[in-house]
Amino acid sequence: MGSNWKTTKLIEHYDIRSGLSKPAKDFGSGYPFLTFKDIFYNYFVPDVLGDLVQSNEKERETGSVKRGDVFLTRTSETMHELGMSCVALKDYENSTFNGFCKRLRPYDNSELIPEYVGYYLRSSKFRQDMLAFSTMSTRASLNNEMIGRLDISYPSKGEQIKIATILKTLDNKITLNRQINQTLEQMAQALFKSWFVDFDPVVDNALDAGFFEQELPFSDELLRRAETRRAVREHDGFKPLPDAIRQLFPATFEECAEPSLGLGGWVPKGWIAGALGDVLSLRNERTKPSAETKNLPYVPVECIGTKEPFLSEFKSGDEAMSSLILFKKGDILFGAMRPYFHKVCIAPFDGVTRSTVFTLTARDTESRYFSLFQAYQESTIEYATLHSEGSTIPYAKWRGSLERQPTILPTIQLQRLFHEKIKLFIEWGGSNNEQSKTLSKLRDTLLPKLISGELRLDNIETDLTKVEVA
Fold first, then answer.
1. Is 448 a domain residue?
2. How far apart are CA 112 and CA 151, in angstroms?
3. Fewer Cβ within 10 Å of end Cβ, the chain: N or C?
4. In a domain, 229, yes or no
5. How many domains does the chain have?
6. By the 8 A CB rule, do 115 and 168 touch?
7. 181-211 per-position pLDDT tens digit
8. pTM of this prediction?
């Protein structure tokens, strides 16, 4: 550590205050609220606070969230989860924070740069200090006296900015990759919905063919869809599908024996009323933990994103358990227990999981992504919920249950066309995840070296006037 570095107590830089404790009925509406999870999972406070709470003017004044504020989780089930930090990089108007956390507000004369602090408090050095001071009774807890004994080491403001700039640049790119993946997923979802839920190309063809002018007992849902589509087609910016693609869709609807399918029981003519099991099968290859499985990525249900096709997290090796389930690259992983039915993704590698995850294989590999988005639909989640069993933790069953979920299946040609259309999205998203993992490893490697002063940045020039790194 350089001679210009200082080591002082956190209490010399911050005023400590506890957060807002409110009954459950006060949540869900009102003013922005920084939650325990927001603090636990993020180096820095998210740009937008997604939770709301009913708070009065005094509570918002005393429990405000401003640039430079440090938030620490003050209670947890384990010591390793105690004192997780999150730093605000801007003011959050009318916001308050969770009562299970501590807010450290910087004094005006503090020499600490918020971005530097955000990384320092997540470094292995600080985490070790935190564990040394924490106490464990029924739950791990952190009080003001313990916080007051914690140290922070730091160089000059200019050096802090340099360190934070390097690390924040890596994090910004990881965030950008995540945002790109969210956009790709939304585009793929929109295409699936247009083609196979709203049946836009079929409605277009039917309108052009005068199908709706016939005296048939159309359902109200089908007629509303036709009117909505007619209005869309009248807009100046409307662009129809290319003729070669439109010709693959029928120009008429027909009544289906299953009234819950299609648009009020009306489905594109020639499409099959089938089941989810027609496009997906259960792999269910079980194995015992071994030296071989130890080297495979382990993906518990918690690592699967919420309706996000790109798997971004996994653990190294398997956990201590009697049985594991193998999956192959390209398999579809689907949460098998409530409340995880909304967790669905494509496996980008061979790996192992456990019984809380269905490992599903597309019956036709050339339409794999069509099968994925079939499993993605709200109707699948609702069906899994309705047919789950168990009182403590309800599980869905695949064979004899979820595989029988009714669905409409277009021609195999259309299934494969959709697969090809979004294949680039999936590959791009997977590439973004690989890049993010590399950047995360680089950040985690640089962090302790920069925070300790082992890696010096004397020769790197940074615009010291730009205090706001974010």
1. no
2. 13
3. N
4. no
5. 2
6. yes
7. 999 999 999 999 999 999 999 999 999 999 9
8. 0.80
